[in-house]
Amino acid sequence: MRALVAELEARGLKIRVHGHGVVWVRNPAGDPAPDDKLGALMAPRLNQEVWCRPNGGDHALWWWAWAAPERNQPPDLEPLCPVDEPRRAADAIAHVLAVPFADVPVT
Length: 107
Prior knowledge:
The protein has helices at 2-10, 37-42, 86-96; strands at 14-18, 22-26, 47-54, 60-66, 76-82. By secondary structure, the chain is an alpha+beta fold. The protein has a 5-stranded antiparallel β-sheet with strand order 1-2-3-4-5, covered by helices on one side. Helix 1 packs across helix 3. The protein is globular and about 50 Å long. The model has no long low-confidence stretch (mean pLDDT 90).
């Protein structure tokens, strides 16, 4: 898990590690401006949760955790990549959370 956290932080993403192999990743480029109170209330932010879980065999995988189709259900898990490929996982997560043209001023 430390290797994935380091890879994600190197890409400028913010991470919260939760127990039981759960990592919550946020791209701060998707956050509203600090003085935008309405934006702070309305902004969904750019977040992604990934889980480290066995794949049913001898190996563990990183799994995308997607919202369940029904309320109060566990998330849908989709395989991302083997746990021993943190760079591959970080590349995919950073791609999903990318904000194209985030540094371009809004006119």
